[in-house]
Amino acid sequence: MVMLPDKPTLTRANLRTPKAAAVAGVVFAVLLFIALWLLRTSIPADPLESGVWIVTGAGTVAVALNLIPFAGIAFLWFIGVLRDRPGILEDRFLVTVFFGSALLFLAMLFVGAAIIGAILLVGTLEPNAFINSTTFHFARAVAYNVMNVYAIKMAGVFMISTSTAALYAGFAPRWIALLGYFLALILLVGSYYMSWSIVVLPAWVLLVSIHILIDDFRNARSS
Asked: Structure pTM?
């Protein structure tokens, strides 16, 4: 009888997240900061505004919209970095809220950007007629609600779940987790009164990412 060779065995039980992947959080924060700053300085915060930005700020808005997909990709990598932290997947309820809120935030961010992009694209055909139409005001209101109501609320839930995971898994200091709770409360309750409240999430992600990078660097030096 001819003996067949054994099937090759996997030499590593699982793949580890590259240390450099923690940079994804920094990339997400920087890109989203820039995109939001360009949008906020070009488009008035009032959802009932006149729409003059379609003519005067079209180029700036287009640059911001092109940055958002790359920020979203970096955010997915950041989720992977957090998922790789020891102990974060021990609680099924927590990890479900963690993944669900992160993906919902990202989806709403993309939807809001897509609506603004559609407004910009259609508005270039006949700007004056489009600005004075009901379609423009409806689309503008939808974009405002998606970005400034639902996306921000999901960002707050993501920060709460991540802060809770940080307390249990210990991948971030206690003060960072407590700060996450406080900032998340601002997003959930007071975002309506703060036009720049959406920058709270990238600022906190930047803080967490910097800590993870420093922690990985220390572990690499000690090993």
From this structure: 0.84
